[in-house]
Design goal:
381 residues; mainly alpha; three-stranded antiparallel beta sheet; 16 helices; 3 strands; globular; disordered N terminus
Length: 381
Amino acid sequence: MVQANEEKAPVRGLESVVAADTSISLVDGIHGRLLYQGYDIHDLAENTSFTETVFLLWKCRLPTQAENDTFRSEIVAEMRLPSQVVEMLKLTPPNSHPMAVLRTAVSMLANFDPDAEDLSPEANWRKAKRLVAQVPTIIADLHRIRLGQPVLSPDPAFDLSANFLYMLRGTPPSEFEQQVMEVLMVLHADHELNASTFTARVIASTLADMHSALAGALGALKGPLHGGANQRVMEMILDIPDVETVQAYVAGLLENKKRIMGFGHRVYRTEDPRARHLRKFSELLCESRNQKHLYEISRRIEQAVLEAKGIYPNVDFYSATVQHALGIPPEYFTAVFAASRTSGWIAHILEQYADNRLIRPTSHYVGEMSLPFIPLAERRA
C-alpha cells in the first residue's frame, strides 16, 4: 500500500489540536479548573443562577439585577412550544430515545421560528432565548405525554430550571430542589471545545441556521462516550445490589476490560471540578429520599476505581444519582444535560458567526494510489 501525505500524520482524536479562539470557557486539565468567561466554576456554582450564567456566556459579562430580572422573564415567557411540535411529540414511538426525539423536535422548531433563516445579531439573540427556553419544555412535554398526562405551562414565579422540574413532574419543586437544579444546569452549561460543541461550530461555520447547528450538537451529545454516559452510570448503580458487592462488581468490569462509565476525562488529569458539587448534592438528596444506599454505592465505586486505576469521576458520575433523586427517569438524563448545554452551544454558535471562517480540516489519506482501471466485464471477485 502506498501512502500519500506521510509528512502530515494525523493526531488521533485531534487531541491538543487548537481549532478555535474562544473567550467562552477554559478547561485546565492539569490543575482541574473550569472557567466561564474568566469566572471560576466554583464561584458560579455557589453564587449564580442558571439565567445569570447563560447571560454571562452570551454577553461575556455577568448581568446586573435589573438585566437578570428582565432576561429571566424573557426566557420563561418563551418556554411554550408551538402546538404542532407538541402534536409531533405525541406521534413519536414510545420506545424512541428522548435524545432522538429532542434532536428531531429542535429541527421542527425551525419551521415555526420567524427568525429561523435570519442570521442578523438581533434575530440570533431572539432565537437564542427561544431555544434555551424551549429545549427543557420539549423534554418535560415528552415525559408528560408518555405518562398520559397533560402538558403544563410554565409558572412565571419560577426560573427556567425550576419550571423544568415543575413541568416534568407536575408538582412545584422545593427550594432545595430548585437550588440543586440550578447548580446542575450551571455545571453543565459549557465545557470548551468538546465533541458536541465542535460539531455546532463546524455547522455554524457554514452559515447554516442556529437550529441546524443545535440539532447537530444534540446528535453528537447522544453518544455514550459523550453525554450519554450519565444514563449508563445510573444503570450500573442500579445493577449493583448493595455496597458489599461493589468491589467484586468493579473488579469484574476491569477484568473483562469493560469501560466504567462516569470515570476519566480526555482533558482532566485530576478530579473534574464539577464532580465536587454534584457529590455533595448526591449525598444530601439521596439521604432525603431514603436512597442513601445509592450514594453509598456511588462512593464505594469511586473509591474502588481510584484505588485500582487512579482515575477520578467526571461530571456524569454523580449527576446520575442527583437526577435520579430529583425524580428524573434515567432515559432523560442526557436530554437534561442537553437542556443546560444548549446555552453553551449557542454561545459558541454566536461566537462563530461573529468572526466566521469555514472550518475545513484536511485528512491523512492511507488508501491505494494509481490503481489500473479494469472494465466491468473483465472484473473478477
